[in-house]
Structure formats: C-alpha cells, structure tokens
C-alpha cells in the first residue's frame, strides 16, 4: 500500500494511547516530543510510563478502553496486545474521523509510524511501508551515526540566520543564494561539534554581511 508521507502538528492536541506496556511507552515518548497532550488508557503502566503519570506529564485513565474514550482526540494509537480491542478502538476512531494506528494490525491503521532520528529541529524519517521494519531500523541506526547530536544546535543556528536573511535580503534570488551558501558551509557544523556556537553564528552573519555588501540586501 502506498502511503502519503506527512508531519503532523500535534502541539497541545489530545492524543490517546491505549495500552501500558513498552510499545505504548515508546509511542507516548514520541507524542510528548511532538508537544501532544497525551492520555494513556490502560489498567497497568510499565515503570517508565508510571513515572510520567506521577509527574503529570501524561494523563492516566487506569482502566481498559471503553467506547466514548476517543471524544475530542486528534489521534489514537492502540498499543495493547488484544486484536479485538484494536478493532473496536479503530472502528470508533474511524466513526469519529480520528486518525488511528493499531500496532501490528495494518487493516486497522490510517497511518504508520516511521523509524525516526531526532536532532532538535531536524527529524529524519525512514519507512518501508510496513514491508520490513527491521530494515527501517537498520537505516535509522546508520542515519544516527551520520547525523550526530551537533545537528540539533546546527539547525537552530541556521533557523536564526534564516530569519535575518529574510529581513535583510528582499531580492528572492539573492536570498536563495545566501541561504544555500549557509547550508553548504560545513565549517559551521564543525564549529557546532566543537560547541563553538557563537563562532558558528558569527560565521553565518559574515556570509550574510558579504551578501548585503555585494548588493543583495540592506545593512
């Protein structure tokens, strides 16, 4: 089945995870990283989830799923072990127009979750469309090595520099040229790896100043 790749904005939105085991915990962590307001419905919680509930980072409904639990949800993930529960949750979700993912039950999924590499604002997603999750994990591990932790601050610095470019370089072609030059300058990434972020930003600002001096923008 071909899937349409998409990144969802779940900031502050109610997302429900049915299940309290390790698989559910993995899904909950991903939702929290996306800023979602997470509700976990399960009669038990594995230790990590229990800690999140104790810190009020997730809302815990300490019982099995019941019809009506999905009201107001933007998305639901069913990570319990009972196929019949997955089918019932999926049926209610679809009746309400709520996106649903039932782990290991493709017929009850509106979407699948890719293998992810997160480096701050940089998110790399890998999917085989459910054909080989093992290969997706292998590729993710390779990407984790290639795109190290320095990419987190690197992307943030590029984002701040981009805002300056948009303010100071009104010409579209000149703007595109300086943005591409910034992204291609590997010395900036090297400075981030050395934890020299101020120097990295200064280097990008010099590129911008050079572009402005060349007539592509305003000081």
Provide the structure class: alpha/beta
Instruction: Return the string of H and E elements.
Output: EHEHEEHEEEHHHHH
For the biggest sheet, the summary is: 5 strands, parallel
**Percentage of β-strand residues:** 5-15%
CATH top level class name of the largest domain: Alpha Beta
Query: CATH superfamily assignment of the largest domain?
Result: NAD(P)-binding Rossmann-like Domain
Distance between the termini: 52 Å
Q: How does the overall form come out from the CA principal axes?
A: elongated
* Tally of domains: 2
Radius of gyration using CA atoms only:
22 Å
Low-confidence stretches: none
Number of DSSP strand runs: 7
Name given to the CATH architecture of the largest domain: 3-Layer(aba) Sandwich
Word description of this protein:
- This is precorrin-2 dehydrogenase.
- Helix 5 packs antiparallel against helix 6, helix 6 runs antiparallel to helix 8 and helix 7 (186-193) packs antiparallel against helix 8 (197-216).
- With 219 residues, this protein is α/β, with parallel strands linked by helices.
- The mean pLDDT is 94.
- It has a five-stranded parallel beta sheet with strand order 3-2-1-4-5, with helices on both faces. Strands 6-7 form a two-stranded antiparallel sheet.
- It has eight helices and seven strands, in the order E-H-E-H-E-E-H-E-E-E-H-H-H-H-H.
């Amino acid at each position: 089945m071909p899937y349409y790749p998409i990144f969802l904005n779940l900031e502050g939105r109610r997302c429900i995870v049915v299940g309290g085991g390790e698989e559910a915990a993995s899904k909950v962590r991903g939702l929290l990283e996306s800023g979602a307001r997470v509700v976990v419905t399960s009669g038990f919680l594995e230790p990590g989830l229990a800690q999140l509930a104790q810190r009020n980072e997730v809302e815990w409904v300490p019982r099995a799923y019941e019809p009506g639990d999905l009201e107001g949800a933007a998305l639901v993930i069913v990570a319990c072990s009972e196929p019949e529960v997955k089918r019932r949750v999926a049926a209610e979700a679809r009746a309400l127009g709520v996106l649903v993912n039932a782990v290991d039950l493709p017929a009850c999924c509106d979407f699948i979750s890719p293998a992810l590499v997160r480096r701050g604002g940089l998110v790399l997603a890998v999917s085989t469309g459910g054909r080989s999750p093992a290969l997706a994990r292998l590729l993710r591990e390779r990407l984790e090595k290639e795109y190290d932790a320095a990419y987190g601050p690197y992307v943030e610095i590029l984002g701040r520099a981009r805002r300056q470019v948009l303010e100071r370089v009104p010409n579209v072609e000149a703007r595109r040229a300086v943005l591409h030059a910034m992204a291609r300058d590997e010395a900036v990434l090297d400075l981030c790896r050395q934890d020299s972020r101020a120097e990295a930003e200064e280097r990008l600002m010099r590129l911008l100043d050079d572009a402005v001096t060349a007539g592509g923008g305003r000081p």
